[in-house]
């Protein structure tokens, strides 16, 4: 079972992973109400179980409530790779200083969970693996031993993240993502991008 973005963020929040505040809307009017509640510059995002939303026009910036209503009207009903948009996620726009990628998937070959972390976030992980494999840190977790803090440090250092403030926050997210992966009986938990704001805060954007 795949989760919509808003469901994934609700799940992440339950495990203490920082996410951006947002609201779900099924109509342009609901989008307007959500935008009024959230305030500030916003992002209106199609909720579909497929990639390529941005290229298909399913992710739009909005200046305020009027604009969010108009953008939601544009997006709702849109066909994205055979998936019709029935709901949109209204979220406060984020200032982004850096984009990372973090995931855990089940490696069927090794029969172990596999962490992947790279400082080249915001693009498809397959593209990073193909074009710049050295930028991708990988780490298996022994299911009998379970997650250990030293593994998170090895992963963060292996990805070349050297800012102490970022390291501290990402170490916490790495541990929480493992709990989310195991306790949710997941096959894949993925954050792309994991952003760093200009103020140095790290959170799961998508």
Helix content: 25-40%
Tell me the β content: 25-35%
**How does the overall form come out from the CA principal axes?**
globular
Overall pLDDT level: 94
Number of strands: 11
Q: Whole-number radius of gyration?
A: 18 Å
Spatial order of the strands in the main sheet? 9-8-7-10-11
Largest sheet: 5 strands, antiparallel
State the end-to-end CA separation.
Answer: 18 Å
Poorly predicted sequence stretches spanning 5 or more consecutive residues:
none
Number of helices: 6
Q: Which secondary-structure class do the elements indicate?
A: alpha+beta
The helix-strand sequence is HEHEEHEEEEEHEHHEE
Summary tags:
single chain, 206 residues, alpha+beta, five-stranded antiparallel sheet, four-stranded antiparallel sheet, 6 helices, globular
Report on this structure:
The chain has 206 residues and is of the alpha+beta class. Helix content is 33%, strand content 27%. The longest helix is centred in the last third of the chain and has 20 residues, at 164-183. The protein is globular. The relative contact order is 0.17.
Write a brief caption for the model:
The protein is of the alpha+beta class.
How would you summarize the topology of this molecule?
Layout: H1 5-14, E1 22-25, H2 28-38, E2 42-46, E3 59-62, H3 65-75, E4 79-80, E5 83-84, E6 88-92, E7 98-107, E8 112-118, H4 125-131, E9 136-140, H5 149-158, H6 164-183, E10 188-196, E11 202-204
Antiparallel strand pairs: 1-6, 2-3, 2-6, 4-5, 7-8, 7-10, 8-9, 10-11
